[in-house]
Amino acid sequence: MTFAEKAIQYFARLKPPGRLPPGVQPLYPHKDPAVQAVIREFFSRYYSDEQQRTMLIGINPGRMGAGITGVNFTAPRQLAQFLGIPHPWSDSSELSAEFIYDVVSAYGGPIAFFSQFYLGSVSPIGFVRDGKNLNYYDDPLLQERIRPYALKQLKAQIDFGVRRSVAICIGGDKNLKFLQALNDEHKLFNELRVVPHPRFIQQYRRSAKQSYVQQYLDELLYCIKK
């Protein structure tokens, strides 16, 4: 099976984690026929081969990005403007998606980028509380409860055809600490690299954005050579 076939099958069967803490709701758009169609088109267009990719591992989807589209770090605007994939949603965007697609463009565009890399997350399902995005590590009980789920989903995505020599953690501090602990115990990857989270860059370091784009490019090139 190709990378695309495995990924499409995985996302069609994906279920949210159980036993979420009180007040925490999953972002689970994957049963929407429009989301299924977008996921099929995305992976069929960019991953229909057996080439291995390096995985970039974010936190969990947000409600304005993959919480709508089902495609990690990709909001409706990026689907249309960068990937040319039609969809039924409004022209909404999110800060993280905007930065990631600046990196994609700087790397040479979607065909070049996605032929070498796969954008994933510690949890492929996002979370909200009181209508606001919730990172898995912002609630200690949520972090504890999704640990087995996160491990299972990371292993399943590695089976698409992800290289195990090296991966990139998107977001230092809490995301890196959680992912590093999983990796130390279960040996998912030989090496973990880290880059700052796009939302942090866009909110607090926007004036230096190009230097962060270059930092991402440097890490991508490092992984390609491993």
TrEMBL record:
Domain Uracil-DNA glycosylase-like: 47-220
Segments forming a coiled coil: none
InterPro entries linked to this entry: Phe_SMUG2-like, Uracil-DNA_glycosylase-like, Uracil-DNA_glycosylase-like_sf
UniProt cross-references to SUPFAM superfamilies, sorted A to Z: Uracil-DNA glycosylase-like
Protein name from the UniProt record: DUF4918 family protein
Protein's organism: Flavihumibacter fluminis
Organismal lineage: Bacteria, Pseudomonadati, Bacteroidota, Chitinophagia, Chitinophagales
